[in-house]
Amino acid sequence: MADAKDVRGLRVARTELTKRGIDISRADLRVTHGTFYIKGMIGIMRGVACKDLRLEVEHIGRLLRQKPDIKDVVIDCQFMGG
């Protein structure tokens, strides 16, 4: 059974990514023991202006580390566009 903190952390991470226009439809997202993992391919949603996708995702990672249910962030993905 999934830990409630991990479930909340995943919900927070998905919200932050989509709020900022990051396309996570081809990515695998999970939170395990407070560590948020993003793997696969990510891009920019259509109609969203983003100069550097990699920097934006790193910025989101720093924001997520400040959330109570996320202790660390592991970004292991390919960046498409941006």
What's the topology here?
Blueprint: H1 4-19, E1 22-32, E2 35-44, H2 53-65, E3 72-79
Parallel strand pairs: 2-3
Antiparallel strand pairs: 1-2
Commentary on this structure:
The chain is of the alpha+beta class. The protein has a single domain, classed as Alpha-Beta Plaits. The protein is 35% helix and 35% strand. The chain contains two helices and three strands, in the order H-E-E-H-E. A three-stranded mixed sheet has the order 1-2-3, with helices on one face. The radius of gyration is 12 Å and the shape is globular. The model has no long low-confidence stretch (mean pLDDT 92).
Number of helices: 2
Q: Tell me, what is the CATH class? A: Alpha Beta
By DSSP, the count of extended strands is: 3
Any idea of the CATH topology? Alpha-Beta Plaits
Estimated helix fraction: 25-40%
